[in-house]
Write a structure and sequence with these properties.
The chain is an alpha+beta fold. The protein has one domain (27-165). It is 26% helix and 36% strand. It has three helices and ten strands, in the order H-E-E-H-H-E-E-E-E-E-E-E-E. It has helices at 2-21, 50-61, 73-84, and strands at residues 28-36, 41-49, 85-88, 94-95, 98-104, 108-116, 127-130, 141-148, 151-157, 163-165. It has a six-stranded mixed β-sheet. Strands 4-3-7-10 form a four-stranded antiparallel β-sheet. Strand 8 (141-148) and strand 9 (151-157) form a beta hairpin. The longest helix is centred in the N-terminal third of the chain and has 20 residues, at 2-21. The protein is globular and about 40 Å long. It starts with a helix and ends in a 6-residue tail after the last strand. The relative contact order is 0.19.
Length: 171
């Protein structure tokens, strides 16, 4: 009798375990961004999956890319950023990333860059656009934790929300 119950339970539970393996994976990037008043720039640390970045850049250049082995990978990363992650001034002019460096981990890669806003610009009047992997992964979501002094704001980006204001007091 106990054996029959165990078999029945397994027959009921096995299909539900299968659903977990076919569930929609979460695709997300996370960035920390901070206003540096001394340099008049926004400094960014972006965490993403290295394999996703390799795939996105490979699709962009129509060739295979390896973050650790490709000779011109830093330029390719900067080119990818220029199309998918930039600041928009109140005038409508785009400010592109000044790529600094990267750290490649087992799963995640950190990319470090900054946006030189300039002395005559006020960051709270700017917007930021983040479409990292939107063309590559279904359901992609990107988050930036933006800090200016002691204040912070969480910026969320999805297919329908590609830009966000850097005004701490504005949603």
């Amino acid at each position: 009798m106990n054996k029959a119950w165990a078999i029945a339970a397994l027959l009921i539970l096995i299909p539900s375990f299968e659903n977990f393996s076919y569930g929609h994976p979460v695709h997300a990037t996370f960035a920390e961004a901070q206003w540096n008043s001394k340099t008049q720039s926004i400094e960014v640390s972006l965490r993403l999956r290295g394999v996703d970045l390799e795939s996105a850049i490979s699709d962009q250049i129509k060739g295979k890319v390896d973050l650790e082995k490709s000779k011109n990978i830093d330029q390719l990363i900067e080119d990818y950023l220029s199309k998918n992650f930039y600041v928009i001034l109140p005038t409508g002019k785009n400010i592109y990333a000044n790529y600094s460096d990267k750290e490649i981990g087992i799963t995640n890669t950190w990319i470090f860059f900054s946006f030189q806003i300039g002395e005559k610009q006020e960051p709270h009047l700017c917007k930021i656009r983040n479409t990292i992997f939107f063309d590559d992964l279904d359901g992609q979501k990107n988050v930036i934790e933006y800090r200016i002094g002691k204040h912070k704001k969480i910026l969320s980006f999805e297919e329908k929300t590609r830009e966000a204001s850097l005004d701490i007091n504005k949603k």
